[in-house]
Amino acid sequence: MAVLALTGGIACGKSTVARTMAALGVPVVDADQVARDVTRPGSEGLQAVLDAFGQDLLDDTGALDRKRLGDRVFGDPALRERLNGILHPRIGAESMERLQTLSLAGHGFVLYEASVVVENGAWRGFDGLVVVTAQPSVQLQRLLGRDRRGEADARARIASQWPLSRKVALARWVVDNSSSQERLLARTRELYAELVTRFGPPRRNLS
Question: pTM of the full predicted structure?
């Protein structure tokens, strides 16, 4: 089974590509969802985060307030590194378990969706890299419309990531989401066909 990393810049449409692929039958392991799972209420991962960053990071339901945590570490490389040191080993171990289960099921390929798979160098361990990109002006406008944090904050969040051009230079497949939703979905279906030809179909399509 081929395991392909799927990444992209903030507000570029990575999650839309992942959902479309999933609807076509492609298994997707979402690193962000794995991060939620390893910090679920009562978990050792959640306690490690609270011990490091404060008990006030729990919301009214007893779950981790991820927005508050993100705001706390954003702009502070030392704090981000400390958080990554807590989460990344747990996310990696849980993701590996899920990928092994999918491999045993006989899928031709799966996608591992992650925001920082290039920045942390993990992309080298995959069988290929898919990057979802967009023109910087389009990216900024989408982020402003989505998060409503203000232009200065939006630009800071974009700047905190690697430039899209660096990610694209490493990619085997690129999905450009600079135009319409319809074009993004069409390009994603084209990519699906390419990947099936190369690696074989999802398990549900096997005879």
Answer: 0.90
Q: Is residue 4 classed as helix, strand or coil in its secondary structure?
A: strand
Cα 164 from chain centroid (whole Å): 14
Angle of helix 66-73 versus helix 77-104 axis, rounded to 10: 130
The domain defined by 1-27+109-197 folds into Rossmann fold (3.40.50)
Mean pLDDT by runs of 10 across the 207 residues of the chain is 96 96 96 97 97 96 95 91 95 95 91 94 96 95 86 90 94 97 97 96 61
How many Cα atoms sit within 13 Å of 16 on the Cβ side? 20
Spell out the domain ranges in the chain: 1-27+109-197, 33-106
Strand partners of residue 133:
176
Q: Which residues contact 203 (CB under 8 A, 6 or more apart)?
A: 25, 27, 105, 106, 107
**Per CATH, which fold does 33-106 belong to?**
Rossmann fold (3.40.50)
